[in-house]
Amino acid sequence: MPNTQTMTHRERAAVEAHYRAMSIGELAYDAWLAALRAYGDDSPLARVRVNQVIAASH
């Protein structure tokens, strides 16, 4: 994380939100990989099917 001491409050809030979103994105990707491993197939067609199943579950 960059040095936020010289940033304005708004700049610091933006940087912190960016890093939180990156962390959430990394967790979401890890969860997707876990779903793919559980499905037991890493083919492109399996990736599409896993995405469909995840989307339908929401």
Shape: elongated
Low-confidence stretches: none
The helicity comes to over 70%
Distance between the termini: 33 Å
Average pLDDT over all residues: 89
The domain tally reads: 1
Strand content: under 5%
DSSP summary, beta strand count? 0
Name the structural class: mainly alpha
**Radius of gyration using CA atoms only:** 17 Å
Summarize the helix and strand pattern as letters. Answer: HH
Structure write-up:
It contains 2 helices and no strands. With 58 residues, it is mainly alpha-helical. It has one domain. The longest helix has 31 residues. The radius of gyration is 17 Å and the shape is elongated.
List keywords for this structure.
58 residues, 76% helix, 0% strand
Summed up, what is this model?
Helices cover 76% and strands 0% of the residues. The protein is mostly helical and 58 residues long.
Secondary structure topology:
Blueprint: H1 9-39, H2 44-56
